Amino acid sequence: MPTIKVITFDLDNTLWDVQRVMIKAEQHLRSWLTAEVPEVVAHYSGEALRDLRTTVLAEHPNLVHDLSKLRREVIYQAIRRCGYGRIEAGTRADAAFAEFYEARHRVEYFEGALETLATLAENYLLGALTNGNADFKKLQLDRFFSFGVSSADVGVGKPAPDMFINALNRADALAVEAIHVGDHLIDDIQGAATVGMHTIWVNLKDQPLMPDTINPSATVSRISDVPASVVAIEQTP
Ligand SMILES: [Mg+2]
C-alpha cells in the first residue's frame, strides 16, 4: 500500500472556474485602458488584441509558458502601435498589466475547495502546480500549499515531466508517494501518470474519459470528495 507524502493541485478549473475570472479580468483591463490609454481601445477590439497575441506568440514562442509576460507584451505592443514611445508604453503596459493581474486573482472557489485544502493540509504536504499565472501566495493559499511550481519558472508546462519532477524534488518525495489532482486529462492526469504519480481527476462537468487510454487513479465530481479518494489510493494493495 502506498504511503502518500505529497499532494499537488492544479489551480485553474480545479479550484475555481478560470473562464469566469478571466472574462471579468479582461473587462476590467478594457475599462482601465479606456480611461488611461483610450487609443488602444479605439484601435483594438478584443479580437484584434487576440490577433496581436498570436503575432507576439509567433515571434516569442517561449512566452506560451509565461502568460504574465505574454499578456504584458501584448499590451505593450498595442500601446506602441498607437504611437507611444518605448518608455511611455512600458510604463503604461506595466500599469495595465498590474490592473489585470489584480482582477485575475478575484477568483470564486468551487464549493468545498478551501475546506478540502485545509483538511488535506493537516496530514499531507500540499503543492500548487500550474501552467497559468495565478499566484497562490497572492491568494493566501500558502496557508495550505508549502510550495508552488509554475510553468513560467520551469520554462515548460504540464504535461512535461519537468513540472512534476520539479514538484517531487521540492517535496523530497518519490512519485509513488505523490498524488496530483487536476481537471485536465492530458496536462494533469497523463502528465503526472507518466512520471509515476497517482492521479485524481477532478471531473466537475461529467466529461467522458478521452482518450480512453488515460486511467486516473481516482475520479471525483466534487472537490470535497478528494480526501476520500486519497484514502482509497492509500488503501490500494
Ligand atoms: Mg486546470
Low-confidence stretches: none
CATH-level-2 architecture of the largest domain: 3-Layer(aba) Sandwich
User: How many extended strands?
Assistant: 6
CATH superfamily of the largest domain: HAD superfamily/HAD-like
As a whole number of angstroms, the C-alpha radius of gyration is 19 Å
Helicity range = 40-55%
Biggest β-sheet description:
6 strands, parallel
Q: Span from first to last CA?
A: 5 Å
Strand order of the largest sheet: 3-2-1-4-5-6
CATH topology grouping of the largest domain: Rossmann fold
| Basic shape | elongated
The percent range for strand residues is 5-15%
For this structure, what is the CATH class of the largest domain? Alpha Beta
- What is the N-to-C order of secondary-structure elements (H for helix, E for strand)? EHHHHHHEEHHEHEEH
